[in-house]
Amino acid sequence: MGFEWSPCAVTQFSLLQINSYVPLYVDVEKPASKSSTFSVYLFETVRREVNITLPIHFRYHDPSERKFERIQIESPSLHLQCNRGVNGKAQPLKGSETHRFPCASSAQIYDYDKLDRAEHCDWQEVEFSNVPTVISVLIPVGNSASYRFVLPATILVSWIGSIYLIYIIVKSGKRVNKKLL
Q: Alpha-carbon distance 93 to 102, whole Å?
């Protein structure tokens, strides 16, 4: 999972909303083996200190012989758009690289069919203090050696539970019908 941390001087934040843009539809329930990385763009007004907390959903991993899978999330990068200068063009920062990323207005795209139509703007990369630079997390993984036991046991328990629920529903239905008549 990649993150592009993109602050913008023209975007306003409410206390309960983070203005963000993800350039594609993401199926969060798709397992890790069938998924690809993607970028998340966050837009915030520039001030002395920005502190954003995001919930992260880790994907399910295929069963393996190991008990855990190590996942690493890289630190975000910080990009700015400076005040407009002469002729409405941004003033470049000294010694910074310029990149083309979605504009802050892309946070207003709510239709999945229009995600790829976001306008792109020039952003300048800025170094910032962010500790740690890489977050490492251990995700529990199913044991592939248990597959021969777990699959039949799961099917058996599901069938027994379903039959019991049908029995209770039919029994309750008969009792309710007797009271109504």
A: 19
Distance CA(46)–CA(83), nearest Å, equals 11
Question: Token digits for 158?
Answer: 């599901």
- Going through 127-170 in order, the beta strands assigned E by DSSP cover 134-140
Calculate ∠ Cα 59-152-149, nearest 5°. Answer: 75
Rg of the chain in Å (alpha carbons): 25
pTM flag (> 0.85)? no
Whole-angstrom Cα distance, residue 105 to residue 67? Answer: 43
- Burial of residue 105 (CB within 10 Å: 0-12, 13-18, 19+) is middle
Q: What is the pLDDT of residues 48-107, one digit of tens each?
A: 776 777 777 788 888 888 889 898 887 788 888 765 555 555 556 666 778 888 888 888
Structure letter (DSSP) for residue 114 = G
Cα 29 to chain centroid distance, Å, stands at 11
- Rounded to the nearest 10°, the torsion over CA 25, 31, 32, 34 is -70
In whole angstroms, give the CA distance from residue 142 to residue 65. 8
